[in-house]
Specification:
The chain is mainly α. It has 7 helices and no strands. Helix 1 runs antiparallel to helix 7 and helix 6 packs antiparallel against helix 7.
Amino acid sequence: MRTVPRWALVSSGCPPVLLISGWTVAARLEGPAYDPVTQTISVLAAYGAAGFWVMTVAMLALGACHLLTAWALRAAALAGRLALAAGGVAALMVALLPTPSSGGSLRHGSVATLAFTLLAVWPVLATERGGGAPWALRPAPCVAATAVMCAGAAWFLVEASRQGSAGAVERLVTGFQSVWPFVVVVSCVLASPPATPPSSPRTPPLPPSGG
């Protein structure tokens, strides 16, 4: 099995911290006028929002982390790594194409949808069918992860259409998407064979002393 460097634990562990701390700080800056249950994260990242710069920095850092993790995740199938990397690039584009202060934005909506789709399908594309594959790269967990994300997307659309708890559902789904790369990396690191210490040179026996 191809090993995954331990620094990938950092690149994969940072996205959930960046995302959750970003929307928490931005919401505090926005004040009581913002409702995190019904309003989406994009509202916090819109031009003119008090937390615009916080969410922009968080999304840029998150996209960069996904790119680094995709590079390091050598144990996963190439298609999954490419999808994760593309999801990272799409996350960068989400930060660079925020919504306007009022109304919607087709460009922002398009790249946000693309980012979500790529980060939802990369687990199933990363599947390794070999017997020695790490737990989180086996077919059942990979399919389950993608299914949970797709179900979350359907739930979000339902809540958005009826003006319900779209913000809360979006946070649950994007939070799960940000955590899954870390789960995969941890499973790969735990499955890596332990390093074999270098063998010490054998000391030749001493000749018998004369008596």
